[in-house]
Amino acid sequence: MKYKRILLKLSGEALMGDRNYGIDPVRLADYASEIKNIIAKGIEVAIVIGGGNIFRGLAGASNGMDRVQGDYMGMLATIINGLALQSALEEADLQTRLLTSIEMKQIAEPFIKRRAVRHLEKGRVVILGGGTGNPFFSTDTAAALRAVEIGADVLIKATKVDGVYDKDPLIYDDAVRFDQLTYMEAINKRLEVMDSTALSLCMDNELPILVLNLWDSDALRQALYGDKVGTLVSG
Predict the structure, then answer these.
(1) What is the 3-state secondary structure (H, E, C) of 90-113?
(2) How far apart are CA 193 and CA 142, in angstroms?
(3) Alpha carbons 159 and 180: distance in angstroms, whole number
(4) What is the pLDDT of residue 57?
(5) Residue 100 confidence (pLDDT)
(6) Which residues does the chain have with pLDDT short of 50?
(7) What residues make up the domain containing 38?
(8) Residue 17: partners with Cβ closer than 8 Å, 6 or more residues away
(9) The CATH number of the domain where 222 resides is what?
């Protein structure tokens, strides 16, 4: 396998399936099955999940809500999604731990780097909720930060398309896909791979980013074997 330890970034929207909001149990079960397959191959898996299927702080701010309050609501939404994903993974007979940046003793462990790494070494799926614990930072930035902290070999961003395009392929038929990009190309071209803070953090720490379509059941497996799939953003 090309990678030993990965951090998988899932958007909240990825949990909606074909719905307009909320959580689709069928989609959760599909993800759990896919993750179980990679764990069986000896890969250590950490997951950062967004909360956009429930609430977005930026959207709340645009409607007159205090941005800080909105962002904290978004962080809580990521923890709700983390609990749902944890339940689905445990239904698939996987051992999991939910770690959060906002302390919630009744439902999760606080995020401590050494604790997270130890769980990974024991073969547990580590779900990281609550973003960075600070307002004004996206879950992209949280994913980059946690990936660097736990020493992940790659940050895999799961999307609904098979890589990074110069424009939205779901709207434009002539959109061109990139097989590989440098960090600076992704930043300068404003390709929306991740936000600029997350990209800069990955660049400074030489953490590669792989963007792929998790709706394609073979994409993640191919990536872990080192096959060319999706778009690789690196130095």
Answers:
(1) HHCCCCEEEEECCCCCCCCEECCH
(2) 14
(3) 16
(4) 64
(5) 96
(6) none
(7) 5-234
(8) 24, 26, 27
(9) 3.40.1160.10
